Amino acid sequence: MTELDQYDYHLPRHLIAQQPAFSRTDARLLVIRRKEKSLEHRVINDLPELLRPGDGLVLNDSKVIAARLLGRRTRTGGHWEGLFLAEDSPGAWRILGQTRGKMIPGETVTLLNVWGKDDVRLELVSKEPDGTWIVRPQSREGTLLLLDRLGRVPLPPYIREGQMVESDREDYQTVYARVPGSVAAPTAGLHFTEGLLRRLEERGIRLCPLTLHVGLGTFRPITAERLEEHVMHAEWGTVPRETVEALRTCRNAGGRIVAVGTTALRLLETAAADGELRPFTGWTDLFIRPPYLFRAADALLTNFHLPRTTLLVLVRTFGGDELIRNAYAAAIRREYRFYSYGDAMLILD
Question: Can you list the domains of the chain with their CATH numbers?
Answer without folding.
Answer: 4-64+169-348 (3.40.1780.10), 68-152 (2.40.10.240)
